[in-house]
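Next comes this protein.

***
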Amino acid sequence: MKILVTGANGQLGSELRELSSSRTSDQFTFVDIAEMDLASDQAMHDFFDGKQFDFVINCAAYTAVDKAEEDSALAYRINAGSVKTLAGICKKKAIRLIHISTDYVFDGEGNLPISEDAVPRPLSVYGKSKLEGERHVLDMLDNAYVIRTAWVYSTFGKNFVKTIAKLAKERESLNVVSDQVGSPTYARNLAAVVLSIVDKVHAKEVDIPGVYHFSDEGVISWYDFAWFIAQTTGARCRINAIPSEEYPTPAVRPRFSVLDKRKIKKNFGISPPYWYDSLKECLSKLDH
């Protein structure tokens, strides 16, 4: 297969790059802003000119959630405008698109795992722009996959796990919100799931396009997550639980981000790992 991965330098793109090294029969192309500037339709069309791929895995996104509140034009350009352009290119060239989205398309007001057909109500510019991108994909392509995920972390890039692991070694105490609940997702697990879907679709074993939810198993708060990170790394830092009101941010976060994963389990036979096992694996890699 010929597979293009956008957002190559991000957490998921970096994990896909690592996993791709063992897939010698497939030809992967990894691009980031230097190779294909998503802020420019012309740059995108120029990149694809004369090239053909079987799959595009779109990991690229504007993910600075708080900054997006003041930089909404760029957030919409990357998360919606470029996605529309990409979907158009995929349609014209008959390329299968797998697009990565987010739990931020929901308001998090419920208390039950959120299914794929729940009505989106994003609270932030980031969430609204990602939802618009999803809709472009689904409106333009009847064979595309949209995979929503949540609380992504990795050994690559900036993320909650690396930040807490570092700060817990440097400080006596940390305040972490305890009233936002979700399921962490180790980007390496998500990368493996995306490639599994690619393989099954390509082999014509399973091909049921549409929206899917994926995260690791288990439900915790950010406070719980921070506590376990500190404990697992042996840090002596005291983790204090605080309400969201005491840690105001420009963008409103969903309070409940637990995604219902029954669809991806049933259709693709996916068995997500338990979040703590994934956390230990990631932290062990950071130690080396």
